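User: Teach me something about this protein's shape.
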Amino acid sequence: MNLLKRRVRGFRLVDLVALSLLAVLILGVYLAKTVAGGERARIASVERQIVAEKSRIRLLQAEVSHLEQPARIERLSETYLGMAPVAFKRQADVEALPELARKPLAAPAKPVEATPDPIVIAPPQPAAPLAMPTQVATR
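Assistant: First, the predicted structure itself:
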């Protein structure tokens, strides 16, 4: 008896094998789509985190830019450390350095108590969620 013509409960054996193979393929495609949807959600989450981190980096760069302003550093050094720009008459030549090294150092100036200027930093706003398709067209 030929396998192609053999019947099981009124159906040809080849038809039953093809039908079961089709069912397995359908199940595999469905599982692949489900896994891909989960991956898409994770990718969107990571992209949102990247946008938030870039925003945070820009905010920190702006803060560093503010903190490194020469006028601000000069004001703080005068206020807290009692420092001032070096006068021209205090400059020394290379020949005078050994003599200056033998002289004792002057006592450090007492810092003046003052409150620092407050820096108000707003937390970065979360990015709007990316639109995800709710339905996938199938044929």
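Now, about its shape. Residues 13-67 form the longest helix (55 residues). Residues 7-85 form one domain. If you'd like, I can walk through any region in more detail.
User: That's plenty for now, thanks!
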